[in-house]
Amino acid sequence: MKKNIRTNTNRFYRNQIRETSLQSFHVQVAETDLCIYASRNLTNEAYESVIKCRDQLESFIRQYPTFATTLTPWTDIQPAPEIIRQMIHASQCAGVGPMASVAGVIAEMVGTTLLQYSDEIIVENGGDLFIHKKQPFNVGIYAGDSPFSNRIGIHVDQAGESVSICTSSAVIGHSLSFGQADAVTVLSHSATLADAVATATANYVKTRDDISNAIDFAKKIANVDGVLVLIGDAMGAWGKIEIVPMREIGVKP
Length: 253
Description:
This protein has one domain: ApbE-like domains (T-fold), CATH 3.10.520.10. 28% of the residues lie in helices and 25% in strands. The chain is of the alpha+beta class and 253 residues long. It starts with 22 loop residues before the first strand and ends in an 8-residue tail after the last strand.
């Protein structure tokens, strides 16, 4: 595969990341387009990790093409690499197809690999974040035309731990959603799980009246630490979701 490293002008929200203590760089391989922050430039290491993830995923899909298209949990358990096992587990926990977690799992696996070389890491993949920071941090929320968009963020006080924040939206990006949420953001130590649960939870949100049921769904899933639901001018949150005004944002996907 050809290495493609560039500044991505299409993903405008990347210009709003306010992380000054780390070096930033981009790695793109086919559909995988990562913005990464680390203590030093780890482009080559990140590229090799992305290639490994994609090779394993693409090889499995060649054997089992339905894995790439099913919208229901994967139950045909076969010997598989770790990336596939994580996606299958998240699929079964959230009740969605395994590809609902693909952005999260790549961010997580690349981020975990890079922690061998840098004690602080941020990996953003399509708005989904894997973060390992020494200090508490804030993450801004972009929610399309919602009045909350770019005005609020989440404070995360899990310094020294790896934490993931993944968002699903019916109005932003190319991911499939059966709901109408402007943004559903899930907090978990697992980016794979957070990505799948964000997708599943967003599917519940057709109107503002669905916020409570959507949150009830997400909070029953083990290892989900928090969820935020935004639709229009309505908001609901549960768990370790401390909302802060935008002026305090330090890290924004």
